[in-house]
Structures are given as structure tokens and as C-alpha cells.
Amino acid sequence: MPIRNVVTRGYGNGNFNTTIGDIVTRGFTSNRLGTANVRNLLLASDLLSKNVGDRIYRVKLPDNPIYPCILYSSDEEPENTLSGSSWLVHKIYTFEIYGNNFVELEKISFELRSVLNNGPFRGVTVDNIDDQYFPEARMYALFIDVSVWQ
Fold first, then answer.
1. N or C: which end of the chain has fewer CB within 10 A?
2. What's the rounded Cα separation, in Å, for the pair 133 and 2?
């Protein structure tokens, strides 16, 4: 007897029930957000933009940056199943928030996580938050590791 119905379960995005024919007819649509577009997602937030402006950088800070600012990088791990690679992509983002006021950095951290939680992802998990003070520069830093499933 041929399989007629497909039931899949995602990470926090509910159930998707359909027939194989519907999947073939519609095709697969990916909602993956490229690493470069993460910056655009963050800049689209009014609250985040109000505090950091456009000072969101990928991998490297500019010379003499203006604080507060956000630096981010990413690493991608394709999810694997027993039958091979999955369409689900697991990205790990590291966000570094730098500034002169620790309370301000915590506020930016909450706004950043709110933007990610409300973004176009299938799941977002904060893996680690660490803070540090650099006395020679009189500067604070928050380091946030976030797992994102797309």
C-alpha cells in the first residue's frame, strides 16, 4: 500500500500534515537566513538600532569603533539523520557586545535575543552568556552563543 499522508514535527513550529502529492506539487521552500542577512534582521529592530545604530559588524571590528557595538560570527552544522543529511540547518552564532556601561550591554543583550526569538527561525536557544571587563580599556563585553535552527 503506498504512503498517502506525511506527518512531520518541527522544533516548536507545530505539526505539518499533508499528502506527498502536495509536497511534490508545492516543492520545498527554504526559509534559511544567510549570515549576511542576520545584520539586516538586527538593523530592522527599532530598539536595537536605537542603542547601537548601524554598529553591527561581522567577524572584525573596525579601527577605533564607536561603542556600544555588536560583533558576530557564525558556524553552520547540517543536521544528520540515520538516512542522511536533513533539510534542517543548525547555525551557531557568537555575538559579542562591547560598551562602557554594563547595564546598557545587558539591555542590548535582551533586545538582541528578542529579535532572534521573533525572527524567521524554527528554533532559537541561548547556549552561553559570559561577561568580561577590560580594565586597560575601561570597557565591558558580553559574549552570547546562540543556536539557531533553520
1. N
2. 62
DSSP one-letter code for 8: E
Number of domains, the chain: 1
The parent domain of residue 129 ranges over 31-149
Q: Render pLDDT for 81-132 as a digit per residue (tens, 0 to 9).
A: 667 666 677 889 999 999 999 999 999 999 999 999 888 877 888 999 999 9
Q: Helix H segments across 82-126?
A: 102-117
CATH code of the domain covering residue 78 = 3.30.2000.10
Quick count: other Cβ atoms within 10 Å of Cβ 136?
A: 5
pTM passes above 0.70:
yes
For 133, list phi and psi in degrees, rounded to 5. -120, 135
User: Would residue 138 count as lying in a domain?
Assistant: yes
The answer to whether 115 and 45 have CB atoms below 8 angstroms apart is yes
Distance separating alpha carbons of residues 57 and 67, to the nearest angstrom: 12
Q: Are 56 and 69 in contact (CB under 8 A)?
A: yes
22, part of any domain: no
